[in-house]
DNA sequence: GAGCACTGC
């Protein structure tokens, strides 16, 4: 017992908790043997939501929309769909849907519910996520899916006619897809009064949610024989089952939260009983620094022995990430230093203490410059509560906030800004257009995006010839782009590749651009990584280099050994294969025949230009440090040192994306000929006087 | 010669 789980040995068992979070357990599965149905039934009845069963069913029956506020551990996610099923909402071939923001949650909840119902997953209970449809159209009654998938389903069935009840879970997270979905569901309700919505949220934002779904228009008809539900939403609160978490604030604010976090961890270790510690910092830099400081402390000071210090962020290699789920050996204490990933996406077992820096990295979009920035910003009160809650899952815990109570009350916003208001909207706009919603600014949003952001999105789509002069989808380009589930600029690149005869290569590039990075992130062995990169690098730039990597991967027989030797992330490559396969299917459906350009990199780069012409840059000849300026907008930008064109500095380049730190760095860069710009987008470049493209 | 919070289709 009390052994670390080692990568390569049997993996920890993945189980789900009642709220769709995921816990990784290493103990052998024993719960399902011997007891069976009766025990499960008893477990179900012990959940807080159980005593509201009748009330929930009554409210859903009588109200078009029911808002359920439930804390963690209430059991709402797994139980409510079952109650609805038991009450007959899935009779007559109808389906009960429950959406989640994350794939992992969908899978976990679905398999839990299937187990509780004693059925095989994929029959009465099923789930759909990208790349995976485990439902049976003849038998599935309860279906779990990501909200993104439900949005996609609306393209084929705008009124979502097969669903009797749609439960939107985790609505408080206010992800882009959740917000779009809620706006569209409200529209659907007007056409389908028999449809029932359940909005489930962890926080008491229920009021604004409720007024959003409040339809003023009273339906006609006599009250007695009116079959239609009430239009005012019902609100129901369900208590959670978490343990009490004692909150500690700083008495005086600190300037260095990193140092404060480290000393707080050490004093918890010195003074508090055993139990693991979870520290929330902002990013890889912070986390690596804190890990190093703590590790040194353990080396230098014997009283700090028995500490296991582990970083946790999404960019971490898989084997290292898995370490955080190993059980803590007796007499030791695990310290996990994490990004926001531990706030919602992963549930860690055994955490008793939380240290909250009060900050996270957040994305903000500037529609004027059309640039997305990742900045360290204060979290909201809701986030702080969520973080604190991570300490109370197994027994009463403590949360140490590295800020004052006054700051929490007076300075921190209660909710945080919905993603809708801090992101680029091109994908969102195109989705709505595809559903026939033309007036984007006038759409009934839960939180309206800024007019500037909407206008910028329309402008970009217009320049890509995805929208026409009347801001309607062009045919066929616009409709085809809407069909491809990728960034519209990538979709446009794929369509152009079809005309240029290089679709085979371009869908590979598109798949690779759709994931974070295909390289292994290693800080120590940077030199080796650079050398490995050189084995694939070509003068044309990063995109063509990726083709060489892909080719090498295929030739190796998709070998993980080969990836390891070449500093390539094996899991990333598997994902590339998956996405590429999906793109191949979509291409087939919209009538693109895959064709290879047989090594003609000029047509490849022309296709890339056709999608990304707006990101064209020109080297400032008289500047020394490799400074470029964007052709449109004259933004100062530099080639990122991770690019194969770093220090090569071709005169004209096009980039896929920018990362903003002290400078704007271009990631994924390809050299182009400026004449291709006018060829690809005459409407975008022709009329600019004094533009260097002219000569 | 520098660094990418997190999702999702």
Automatic annotation (TrEMBL):
SMART domains: DEXDc, HA2, HELICc. GO terms for molecular function: ATP binding; hydrolase activity; nucleic acid binding; RNA helicase activity. Residues 57-222 form the Helicase ATP-binding domain. Keywords: ATP-binding, Helicase, Hydrolase, Nucleotide-binding. Its EC number is 3.6.4.13. It catalyses: ATP + H2O = ADP + phosphate + H(+). SUPFAM superfamilies: P-loop containing nucleoside triphosphate hydrolases. Coiled coil: none annotated. Residues 261-436 form the Helicase C-terminal domain. It comes from the Eukaryota. Pfam families: DEAD, HA2_C, Helicase_C, OB_NTP_bind. This is RNA helicase. It comes from Nelumbo nucifera (Sacred lotus). The gene is LOC104612095.
